[in-house]
C-alpha cells in the first residue's frame, strides 16, 4: 500500500526497512556512497549549505554532506534506520515521519536530496520538497534506471520473488526513471532547469553470504521473504551471487541509476506596484502621492503604477465621476457596482480597496456579501445594480434585453442604464490595466475588516516586501 492510497501507510515501512537496520547500514548502504558523492557535487553541497535528505535511511548520505560542511536534516519512515542515522549524525535535525508531510517550514533548505526515496508512486512528495526549498534552492534525487540492461541486474533479481502485486508495485515505483517521466513530474511540480544525469552506482560485497545478508536487509527483500520464506530467499540470493564470484575480487554489480537535478525558481523581485519601472518623482507626481497620503494615509501601488501618465489616470477618474453623477449614483451604489464588477472580473485590488470603503460606509457584512455574490443585505435597486455589474464583467456579449428588466423596474431609464454600464466598463478597464501590469493590492488593505479580506479569494495577493 502506498502513502497516496492510505495516509498512514508510511507507518508500515519500518516493518520491512527497519528490521535489519545494522545490516543495511554496514553491508548495503556503503555501496551507495558513489551516488551520494556525485549528487552532492552536482548540487554544490559545501560549507553552510542547509541540506535535507528525504528518506535518509541510516544516514550515510547525511554524514558525507556534513563532511563537506553542510548543516543537515533528514527524515525517514523507518524508526530503526533513523536511530542509526542519529547515531552517525548526533547534531543533525532528524525526524521519523512521512515524506509527504515534512515537519519543516517553507523555504527552510538550500538543497533537498533523496536517494531512491522518491518514486513514481509518490508524486506528492516532490511537492513537499518544493515547499521546503528556499527560492532558487536545488533538488537532486536518484531512481533506478534501466535495470534489466544493467550488468549488475542479477543483484536485484531476488526482489522478484515477491508476490505479483508487490512486483507490479515495484515496477510502478521505478517507472519514475523512464525517459521523460521525472522531467514531466518535476515540470508539473514547478521546478525549472530540469536535468537528467547519469549517476555512478556499483554494489560491492565480499562474498555471496554477505551479499545475501545485505540484500535481505532491504524493504523489497522483505516483500520477497514474506512470499517465499527466509530460507528460500537466502538460498536464491546465494545462488545468483555464487555464479559471479571471481578470485581475489569482491562481487560487483554495476547498476543503472538516473539522477534528476532541478531548481526551485528564484523569487521574483518584489515590486507591488507592478512590472513597470516607477519614474523619478516629479512635482506633479509628488502632489499626487501627497494627495494619496492625505486622503487614505499611504501612497497607493496603483498611483506608482500610473506614474507614467497621472493625467490619463486623473482623466479616467474624472470621467468615472462624471458618469456616476449623470445617473445620480450614491457612494454606496458606486461601492456596490465596483465590488460586484471587480469580484466578477477577478481583480483583488479593487475588490479589497472598495470592499474596505463599502464596509466602512455600510458595514463589513454588506461589503463581504457583495464580494461573495450574496446580495441579501441589499435592497431591490441595489441588487439590480450588482447583478448587472457582474453580468457586464462576466459575459458582456451574452446579455439579453431581459437582463435590463430589473434595472428598469428599479427606476433607471435608458440614459441611466447607459451611464451605469459605462461606469462598470470603465472600472473593468481600470482593473484590467492594473491586473495586466502586475499591480498588487496595497499591503495596508490587509487590515480591512476580516470578512472583506476573507471574501477576496481571487487575483494578485497582497505582497510584503522586506
Ligand atoms: C531505497 S531506500 C533508500 C534509503 C537511503 N536514501 C539510501 O540511500 O540508502 C528507501 C527509504 O525510503 C524510506 N521510506 C519509504 N517510505 C517512506 C515515506 N513515506 N516517508 C519517508 N521515508 C520513507 C525507507 O524507510 C527507506 O529508508
Can you offer a commentary on this structure?
There is one protein chain. The two termini are 45 Å apart. Helix 5 (79-88) links the parallel strand 2 and strand 3 (93-96). With 466 residues, this protein is α/β, with parallel strands linked by helices. The protein is built from 21 helices and 9 strands. Helix 10 packs across helix 11 (230-242), helix 14 (310-326) runs antiparallel to helix 20 and helix 16 (348-362) runs antiparallel to helix 17. Strands 3-2-1-4-5-9-6 form a 7-stranded mixed β-sheet, sandwiched between helices. It has helices spanning 13-17, 21-28, 33-42, 60-67, 79-88, 123-132, 164-174, 181-189, 208-216, 219-228, 230-242, 283-296, 301-305, 310-326, 331-345, 348-362, 364-372, 380-394, 405-409, 414-436, 450-455; strands spanning 50-54, 71-76, 93-96, 109-115, 133-144, 192-199, 202-205, 251-254, 257-263. It folds into 2 domains: 9-263, 3-Layer(aba) Sandwich (Rossmann fold), CATH 3.40.50.150; 283-455, AhpD-like, CATH 1.20.1290. The mean pLDDT is 95.
List the helices and strands and how they pair.
Blueprint: H1 13-17, H2 21-28, H3 33-42, E1 50-54, H4 60-67, E2 71-76, H5 79-88, E3 93-96, E4 109-115, H6 123-132, E5 133-144, H7 164-174, H8 181-189, E6 192-199, E7 202-205, H9 208-216, H10 219-228, H11 230-242, E8 251-254, E9 257-263, H12 283-296, H13 301-305, H14 310-326, H15 331-345, H16 348-362, H17 364-372, H18 380-394, H19 405-409, H20 414-436, H21 450-455
Helix pairs in contact: 2-9, 3-4, 9-11, 10-11, 14-20, 15-16, 15-17, 15-18, 15-20, 16-17, 18-20
Amino acid at each position: 500500500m502506498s502513502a497516496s492510497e492510505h495516509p498512514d501507510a508510511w507507518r508500515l515501512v519500518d516493518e520491512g526497512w527497519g528490521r535489519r537496520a545494522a545490516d543495511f547500514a554496514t553491508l548495503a548502504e556503503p555501496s551507495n556512497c558513489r551516488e551520494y558523492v556525485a549528487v552532492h557535487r552536482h548540487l554544490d553541497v559545501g560549507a553552510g549549505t542547509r541540506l535535507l535528505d528525504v528518506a535518509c535511511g541510516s544516514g550515510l548520505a547525511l554524514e558525507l554532506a556534513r563532511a563537506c560542511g553542510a548543516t543537515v536534516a533528514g527524515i525517514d519512515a523507518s524508526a530503526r534506520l533513523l536511530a542509526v542515522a542519529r547515531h552517525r549524525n548526533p547534531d543533525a535535525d532528524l525526524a521519523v515521519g512521512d515524506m509527504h508531510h515534512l515537519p519543516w517550514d517553507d523555504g527552510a533548505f538550500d538543497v533537498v536530496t533523496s536517494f531512491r526515496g522518491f518514486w513514481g508512486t509518490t508524486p506528492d512528495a516532490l511537492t513537499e520538497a518544493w515547499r521546503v526549498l528556499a527560492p532558487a534552492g536545488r533538488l537532486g534525487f536518484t531512481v533506478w534506471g534501466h535495470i534489466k540492461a544493467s550488468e549488475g541486474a542479477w543483484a536485484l533479481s531476488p526482489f522478484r520473488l515477491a508476490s505479483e502485486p508487490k512486483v507490479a508495485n515495484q515496477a510502478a515505483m521505478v517507472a519514475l526513471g523512464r525517459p521523460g517521466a521525472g522531467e514531466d513530474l518535476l515540470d508539473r511540480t514547478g521546478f525549472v532547469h530540469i536535468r537528467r544525469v547519469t549517476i555512478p552506482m556499483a554494489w560491492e560485497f565480499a562474498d555471496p553470504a554477505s551479499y545475501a545478508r545485505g540484500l535481505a536487509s532491504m524493504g523489497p527483500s522483505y516483500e520477497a521473504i514474506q512470499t517465499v520464506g527466509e530460507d528460500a530467499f537466502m538460498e536464491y540470493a546465494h545462488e545468483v551471487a555464487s555464479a559471479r564470484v571471481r578470485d581475489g575480487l569482491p562481487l560487483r554489480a554495476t547498476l543503472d541509476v538516473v539522477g534528476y537535478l532541478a531548481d526551485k525558481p528564484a523569487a521574483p523581485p518584489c515590486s507591488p506596484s507592478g512590472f513597470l519601472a516607477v519614474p523619478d518623482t516629479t512635482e506633479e507626481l509628488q502632489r499626487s502621492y501627497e494627495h494619496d497620503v492625505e486622503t487614505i494615509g499611504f501612497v497607493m501601488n496603483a498611483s506608482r503604477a500610473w506614474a507614467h501618465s497621472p493625467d490619463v489616470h486623473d482623466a479616467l477618474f474624472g470621467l468615472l465621476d462624471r458618469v456616476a453623477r449623470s445617473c445620480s449614483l450614491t457612494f454606496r451604489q458606486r461601492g456596490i457596482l465596483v465590488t460586484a464588477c471587480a469580484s466578477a472580473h477577478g481583480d483583488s485590488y479593487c475588490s479589497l480597496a472598495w470592499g474596505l470603503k463599502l464596509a466602512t460606509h455600510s458595514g463589513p457584512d454588506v461589503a463581504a456579501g457583495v464580494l461573495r455574490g450574496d446580495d441579501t443585505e441589499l435592497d431591490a435597486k441595489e441588487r439590480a445594480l450588482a447583478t448587472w455589474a457582474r453580468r457586464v464583467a462576466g459575459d458582456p456579449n451574452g446579455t439579453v434585453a431581459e437582463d435590463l428588466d430589473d434595472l428598469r423596474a428599479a427606476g433607471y431609464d435608458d440614459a441611466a442604464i447607459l451611464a451605469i454600464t459605462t461606469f462598470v466598463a470603465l472600472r473593468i478597464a481600470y482593473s484590467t490595466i492594473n491586473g495586466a501590469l502586475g499591480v498588487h493590492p496595497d499591503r495596508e488593505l490587509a487590515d480591512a475588516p476580516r470578512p472583506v479580506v476573507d471574501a477576496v479569494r481571487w487575483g494578485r495577493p497582497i505582497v510584503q516586501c522586506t
